[in-house]
Amino acid sequence: MAIGESVKRVDAAAKVTGRTRFASDNTMPGMRVAHYLRSPIAHGYVKSIDTSKVEELIGVDAVFTFEDVPTVRFATAGHAYNLEAAKRDVEDRLLLTRHVRYHGDEIAVVVAEDDLIAKQALSLIEVEYEEYPPILTPEDAMAADAMELHPDTQNSALPSSCLPKNVIGSHEYSNGDAADGIANADVSLEGTYQTQFQHHCHMETVVSWAYMDDTDHIVIESSTQIPHICRRIVAQALEMPIGRVRIIKPPIGGGFGNKQDVLVEPMVGFLASKLGGLPVRLELTREECISGTRVRHPFKVKVRAGADRDGTLKGLEIDVTSNTGAYASHGHSIASAAGSKIAPLYPRTPIHYKARTHYTTLPAAGAMRAYGAPQATFALDGMMEELAREIEMDPVDFRLKNGAVAGDPHPISGKPIVSAGVIECLKKGREIFNWDEKRKEYAEQDGPIRRGVGVACFSYGSNTWPVAVEISGCRMILNQDGSVNVQTGACEIGQGSDTVITQIAAEYLGIPEAKVKVLQTLDTDSTPYDPGAFASRQTYVFAHAVRQAAEQLREKIIAHASLMTEVPEEKLGLDGDICGPDGMRLSLEELAYDAYYNKFRGGQLTSEVSHKVQSNAYSYGCTFVEIEVDIPMCKVEIKNILNVHDSGRILNPQAATGQVHGGAAMGIAYAMSEELLFDPVTGKIRNNNLLDYKMPTCSDVPEIDAAYVETDETTSACGHKSIGEPPLITPAPAIRNAIWHATGVKVDRLPMGPKELFVHFREAGLLGLSMEKVGARDNVCD
């Protein structure tokens, strides 16, 4: 049995020994190097640009400006194509731009023989700008005198006449009368919560390179999460048929959603075509990645809620304002998805959710792990904590009272929720964590060092249905030696999907995992279609195709064995070898040789399946955390953190725990330190490097414990649900609630590092400092 075991990752040895070849490791003879010229201002217009000195520099192949590229606008977000025009991503990008919309916008590109020459060439380009006032906040964007950032872009989601200036999208949904519920509740509260810009900081930077093959097709090798989607967008941007574009995805060193955008692939395709097919590489520096790719959307969330004294949650009103930066990328879909992801958590409560997303002159915000849920959950769970305290009810008991159970109708679709283990997760976590004892022990404290505990809950989907198509393909081939090659379009980006594919294939074929080889390099010319790695969708979606393909191939193997042995198919089985009555054994290698080489029967045994999923499954869970607060130092130390997950059946416990550890660590970083800082006057990013951007190292991350409640999700192929993104969602609100428990101070904005704690502790009188002695905040999230 392969499913349910902690099978070793199929790529582990190659990665830890350095054998794995990433996109930047691969090259071709004559490879050229490209670099962008980026704007030094946040908002403006290029009045003139002179590249004559560059053209005289030896070693430069070409220089292109915004005047030289196609004028077709395209969307960069990595979503499957939608046949409904109103639901497609906003097309507001050009390969290069004359209208500068953020500090670092791309206005020209140089191609040269090497890095040094390319960088020297950039310094020779002379540009004159007409500078405009930066637009840094949604409030700035809505001001009467604010310039419209995309006046010529037709928002495909709504007619432009329906949207205010610099608003990319707006929507709302209701499940019952939340306002009435709040008005008639014993207790009603309201609060405002602010989250920050965050960057993905994947180990491998953004890199792509392209050339033209002998048939004049553009071939792009890229560190991307979405090869098939990338192919379509490149074709659109370059105004060419999709079939003339080929995307190759080698192993990649992380993405976390940043590479769910098409970032530099259209440009390298353009450059290769302009240079007669010469190979051209465009590899961004770490600084360019942080300021010039994608970031997490900051949300301002206003919440009104009401509850009765018995703990019944009576109504929730949630109002989100989102900042998408200079370009749409995933735009309003983040704020929209955030509402749908939190909806199944308290499904019996009337909820009114509305959200609006604004353009500003800051780096474009896009997909990042958990896709809006961390922002929305920080606000929702903060309010849940406040209500529990107001009615003097234990926070765990309050969540137990209102949490989802199987059979509850989903607040948006109305369909019954198939499996929901949040109640069991809370009960299990409460016991493991010794919640009741610690809560009582830390109830009354004073002094400079104090401890506290906090809890927070989440819900999350397992794909994008019904918003988008969910499709995955799988092809299997029996090799001559009895091993099986498996091809899928599922993207291994470090999360372990190739290992789980191996397990599912082995389970339903009836052969050892060692005989299954998943082809790791994806190629859109030959790989079955799959949108890619995002939305915690892959295992839930591809498992159907892999299982069906394995079952088909197994049937063909059994059928051929019956031909060889003259034993009826129903009397044959497959348990590594073909087995039959009276101890009969036939090796897969013998069978494969006969199928390939017998002159009169058989043929290559293969199977292929393309499957569309028309369901979604909701994962649930919670985080318990114990912290120690040094009030004079405004410092929080995490002493104990536990993530408990209902992800259905756990297919690979060790791999699942790896996801929990990585996700919880990112959640801690989001809570405590990571924040992109911008000059509040110029809009220039202040910390686009890993020295000043405070990403925690291994020595900064505490020991993380994981536990599971296994439910049976009957809509999935193997009873499982998502686990890739959920671990990130609840550390921040749990830590926030623990700080409140320890100090009596509510911190309603992220990150909760010393800078923020200093302000709150000072205002609470814990530091003995007056307001006048300390300057106000000056980051643009305020």
UniProtKB/TrEMBL annotation:
Can you tell which superkingdom this protein's organism belongs to?
Bacteria
> Any idea which GO molecular function terms this record carries?
xanthine dehydrogenase activity
Q: Does the keyword Oxidoreductase apply?
A: yes
What Enzyme Commission number(s) does the record list for this chain?
1.17.1.4
The record's section on Pfam families has: Ald_Xan_dh_C, MoCoBD_1, MoCoBD_2
Parts of the chain that traverse the membrane: none
Q: Is Cytoplasm included in the keywords of this UniProt record?
A: no
**Top-level EC class as recorded in UniProt:** oxidoreductase
What keyword terms does UniProt attach to this protein? Molybdenum, Oxidoreductase
Residue ranges of domain Aldehyde oxidase/xanthine dehydrogenase a/b hammerhead in the record = 17-133
UniProt xrefs under Gene3D superfamilies: Aldehyde oxidase/xanthine dehydrogenase, a/b hammerhead, Aldehyde oxidase/xanthine dehydrogenase, molybdopterin binding domain
Q: What SMART domains does its record include?
A: Ald_Xan_dh_C
Stated family = Belongs to the xanthine dehydrogenase family.
Q: Which NCBIfam families match?
A: PRK09970.1, XdhA_XDHase
Query: What protein name applies here?
Result: Xanthine dehydrogenase molybdenum-binding subunit XdhA
The source organism is Parendozoicomonas callyspongiae
**What gene name is given for the protein in this entry?**
xdhA
